[in-house]
Protein 1
Amino acid sequence: MLPRRALVVVATFLLAFLLYVDRVCISTAKEPIVAELGLTDAQFGWALSAFAFGYALLQTPSGMAADRVGARRILAAIVTIWSVFTGLTALAWNFVSLVIIRFLFGAGESGAFPGMARAVFSWIPVRERGLVKGINFSASRLGAAITMPLLPLLIEALGWKPAFAVLMLVGLVWAVTWWLWFRDEPADHPRISRKELALIISGRQEAGAAAANSRAATLPLGVMLRSAPLWLMMGQYFASNFTFFFCLTWLFPYVQKTYGLTYTQAGFYAMIPLLAGAAGNLVSGWLVDALYRSGRVAISRRLPAMAGFGLAAFGLVMGLGQTEVMPAVAWLSVAIFGADMTLSPSWSYCIDLGGPHAGQVSGTMNMAGNLGSALVALAFPYLRQWTGGDAPFFRIAATLNVAAIFLWLGARPPPNPAAAP
């Protein structure tokens, strides 16, 4: 029989997979949406950015809610909410309605990764967290990757509006299943063994986190925001998301238009960097845990992240000026592999830092990261419009990745911000 914590990983894998299917489907459906609603590229960029702003602004509140009411309630609720707004996207009738719906969709998704972080803190020993976070984020990339070539086929078969309704129903099924099966504390699960429960309880204390047998008291925002390590995490995560979110928003239309591809061809090429991102998450997650188990706690988070940002900057620079689609996609895949290497160490660090406040602390980091996402959705079309090319965007992204390496140089084994702001 699989350990109960392994089933938690499976459930959160499926959640992250669905999260990115629903998130990237609008980018894949850009052509029919723009044609039906009569939008310009800049207006479509605002719709993409509206999601990111809604997603970013509610990260900290949703993380606080996850810490207070538990991952069971918060994840069941937010998956229900975002699934409903996925379906409601099909009812948008003009630019303004699309922006409002996508903002509320983003707000609905905001609790997903903070809620998962809280579940990981309660259920996963510290020495296993790096790989678990890598698995979670690899699922999100696989979800986005599979959506790129398959959703166009679904749209061609059903139309874009029924396709969004199908995705809504899938999400509702996950929410009901999670509510019925999951428990916030391993001790409350009726089918967990005593041996596994003892392993979880003892293992999650290794980083000095406070016991999580009861829900944590609220961590005051003022205390949290005086934590220097948290500010370092927020800065580097901004750079990471600035690089990756391009894949979720503009990559599909970019390769289609730049290299004269068909709808289906663009989907397959846009899938490749996302698969590279999934691989980067798994490699980094394994490396985080391997370094931690070897006793090199300080570099178990820092080294994988710095290596990832270095690869991201290198891939972005090398991809500049490529005239053929395959070399351009290959170098972008190197960049996304690197950018996604930064996720497991970032979230593992924040779970260590936050302890029983893991949802709130990691949500605050994710808020900063998704402000970067919101900026990407607008920066790419406007920079192209102002400069007549795409190179300035990729140079800015590469510069941010280099800056993030220096931010990680300042990251030390984290104290609990509630105890040492």
Protein 2
Amino acid sequence: MFIRKSVAMMAIAAIALAACSSPAGSGGPGGSSATACKVGVAWATSQEERYKLRDEPAVKAAVEAGGGTYLSGGDAQNKADIQASQIASLLSSNINVLVLNAVDPVAVLTSLQAAVDAGIPVIAYDRELESAKALFLTHDNVLVGHMIAEAVTKVQPTGNYVIIKGDKTQTNPTFLRAGMEEVLKPLTDSGAITIVAEEFTPDWTAENAQDEMETILTAHPDIQGVLSQNDNMATGITAALNGNADGKVKIGGQDGDSFALNRVALGTQVVSVWKNSIELGTAAGKAALELCKNPDISKVSGAKASKTTGGLDSFSLLLNPVPITKDNLQVVLDAKWITKEVLCKDVTPGSVAGC
């Protein structure tokens, strides 16, 4: 713990030095030339399929299409100290906008403040930051949670349920759980559904979710439904259920990952709520270009006044998700999100629309 704190303190010092030593006229938006726009992006992880394959290329493409320069801090590997160091490097590179996909929403606030102090506007990408100074850009995660629960309870309106949540250090699990509760409350109040277990999952990993689910199954072997807060964890849940080949346990997830969409086609997962991360990355790149011209986050197209989880007045830009079930697989095919070959792997031809 002491070593980790020491590394973090050195990273913080580097951030402060970078912010104070940037050449005049070359750092924040106020001093850059009219056409210059260098966008730095700090990524929490590349473990999820979406971030490396879809989000990052979309941000980069949008920035470069607008004449800007994209600069990645690299993969922080879900480690707050690594991310602090990467943000320090981005700030020392005289970026004009910081897009921040945070590992830890508390630990990263010092880095965020260093950017703000340097006059650099910040976009909180896909993960909320407790700051009035950052534009929160994501899909509507309360709605995502609602859609997961709605799809699963539609096909399994009774029985024992498990909820596998994301990392407890982040706010997205809270948003998702609130959306789930909108659907679950009348069913749990009536006794139709019983939630026998509910767990947070460190780093949202499939391995941790599998361990959690195996432990739960030991105590509660009779499970009818599992609400997973993302597709990566749903992979671990499915493994704990020995593949759930007969689809007996109804599983829901989100992100529209290719392996999860294939499970939807196979019938081993009920729903994957599709958050088009290409659309999200494109929106982030365009918002960053706007902030290069005007660093006021309230002026970004589509931004609306909102409050952070902690009650701070800020601004957010929320995109709409789409639940993908066996009945509308054609949606992701038409969007060229996934190929038919990948979607329909091992699926009996004609058993579902799209395959």
Protein 3
Amino acid sequence: MKLSIVSTALLCLPALTSGFAPSSSNRQSFMVQQQQQAVPSVNALRAGGSKASVALQMSTETAAVAETPAPEKMTLFEMYTKAADVATNLFPLWTVLFTGIALKSPTSFDWFTTDYFTGALAALMLSMGITLTPDDFVAVAKEPKSVGVQFTLCYAMMPILALFLGKAFKLEPALLAGMVLVGSINGGQASNLCTYIAKGNVAMSVLMTTATTIGAIFMTPLICKLLLGSVVPVDAAGIAFSTIQVVLAPIAVGMTMNKFLPNLVKAILPFAPVVGVVSTCLLVASAFAQVAQPILNAGISLQIPVLLLHLIGGLVGYWLPKIGGFGEITSRTMAIETSMKSSAFGFLLAKLHFGDYAARVPSAVSVVWMALTGATLAVIWRGIPVKEGE
């Protein structure tokens, strides 16, 4: 598998590099242009013109040719920037590709241990942190209404929607419980990357993720008790420590770098989206690989309601704030935060606290559809300019 992927990549390199090289037709047209410019001078000499006048005419023509600016060659960094932009726009495709590999060969990601998983999350947050300043958070703190509305969407609308979809598709009790659990958990860290790609408000996204993550300490058990009649214990200290470790600390480091090492940040900033995309793809594939067989066994009857949960959540999370008077950037941010749940955390809770094995399958399925939905929304909005003042 690894050899095949490497070989394919090597075979693709000549095609990629040829896209930046000048074509033969361009070189031929340039030579023809030079020949055509030389013809008048030769004809003038044959017509009996003096050598001095012909020389003057030729020098004038030569100067005119010299003044014509030659096409600029792309630098290596410009080539990277262009390729990185294309790669970022293909984020949904990479998500599907990595998911397919994890489904076909789950052992391909055995090397991606818990330490790597945590490190990838931290790298994702660091890549977002270097784009932020304390002023960004101050600006968001002055308008807490948006964070409050998104918190309500996360812990009121999404759990009710999950329960409705589960019953509408007649899921068995264990799958229904897992479905509600997905709707009742906090926002995922990958939402910050998708917000960045969608040209949303990253600082607001980080605050919303942090607020719902802390809120999971009491909201997730409460909702599961109200909707399912089940008590889901949540490790409050563990959630708090994980939030600090993989969210707040890397972002704080990134902001510090942005403040005191601006030249370094300027140099590495173009690489931030690529780091984020690679980290997210590995995180999705790793989680998916761990429960590949149960996902296959669940079939399309579970895939559709889980997909609809994230898709409808994203659409409602966008249009409801939009109708309520929020701007375009804020609405995009709230939509992605609402759609993208921390499915890996839901999987862990189901594994630890729900007796039936099937209850953890919706969270595993959600890992893929959550990432794919968020990535698709982000790429679509990336191509739609935001009007000034929105």
Protein 4
Amino acid sequence: METLIVGILALGIVAVRLRALGVPVRVATRNAESAARLKASGLRVTGVGGSLTIEVSQVAAVDEYSTRDTFDLVVLATKAAEAIEVALRLLELLGPGGTLAPIQNGGVPQMLTGRLGDNRVLGGLSNLGATMTAPGVYEQRNAGHLLIGEVAGGESERTERVRQWLGRGVEVRVTPNIRGAVRSKLLLNCSVTTLGAIAGRTMRDYIASEDGRELFDRTYDEALSVALASGARPERMNVDPVPPNWSGRTVPSEAHDEWLCQILNSYGDVKPSMLQDFEQGRITEIDFINGYVVNLGRQFGVPTPANAAVAETVCSITCRKISPDPTLLGRILQAIRGENERVPPIRDGGKEWRWRPQ
């Protein structure tokens, strides 16, 4: 399959491992400057799965690809907001029967399906933990996988073809319930990734504190309640998406501790991608993670005070009004505690404001 991978963030490891095996994959970057750097430096992966370094000659800015460059498969691995913006441009690069496979957080596959049609879009998400330590240099932190599936549900020959092709470089799994899998990934993004970014720590570090543990439970409980209210059937990934004895709220128990340990074994030592966004001055995906949960909560009448306060805090960090710090987790808890879990507005410099989509 003629394949183009658009974006070289954490999923750059997919391009490296495929190219190392001789699989013909081309790469598209945001601009010509990024493409020039990659040509000069190459791509390198270390960590889980072994070390690899490859030269990158077939790389160019996405705008430099023309309709003469047609592909059977375009893997869209940019940030969620960029994926929405660039999708129509990439549609022009698909050959007859070609497939666009967005690998993003939140509801990006469903959004793109609504615009482009399910015959063009294949849903996907990444369970690979990797940190880009420098442009084109990645440290893989877990032996994760890609998960793909038809957005409309069910099985298809297309998903199996893509699985076999990309599976030459990384593990790829197919699910007939990609919508449920996206919801399950969202649960972890809301609690593992965002809270780690706010604290400036890995999950293993922040969950050791009483505040970190409580905020994890509150954020996860809300996101799961919203997912179930929306009619989604969360898909089991590394763990069961529904904690043991869960009844709308987390029930402390030995079984719950064991469930949490399973999450730690997979994600506990991964540097949050949102923290890397803070450090690099990039726009975060908060609108597609905790912000997405807040909006769905309003739609389905599910209160989401923890996720709203978390989203507000991320916006403050993005605007450089505050910096990542573990003490922020306690401040968020203080903001959401109170009679009937009412959420007081967060005040910044005397100005009252609430979270809104960026």
